[in-house]
Amino acid sequence: MPGYPGAGFHIIDTLFYSGLAGVSSHLFSSPEGHVLIDTCNPGDGPAVLRNIVGLGFKPRDIKHILITHAHRDHLGGAAFLAKETG
Using N-to-C axis directions, what is the helix angle for 78-85 and 45-54, rounded to 10°? Predict the structure, then answer.
């Protein structure tokens, strides 16, 4: 089940929350490129992408997507976000 939409927010320093209510995704920002940690459930990719853009980041600046473990609420949006981030 997809998470409830929610806005992304700044956590601390270069760490941002880009997930939804109930399922998490995080973005580490860096001048060399960003790292997206987890991608939420299948179908959540567009909402995660909206949160990333809403935080002021360009999706194409994401250089790596890291999946912490093989549960659908961590890797479900990976294919969509990999395509959208190049």
Answer: 40
| Distance, CA of 67 to CA of 81 (rounded, Å) | 12
Percent of residues in the chain assigned helix, strand, coil, to nearest 5: 30, 25, 45
Summarised one tens digit per residue, pLDDT across range 32-79 is: 999 999 999 999 999 999 999 999 999 999 999 999 999 988 899 999
Structure tokens at 8: 């992304």
Query: What burial class does residue 34 get, using C-beta atoms within 10 Å of its C-beta: 0-12 exposed, 13-18 middle, 19+ buried?
Result: buried
d(CA 85, CA 75): 15
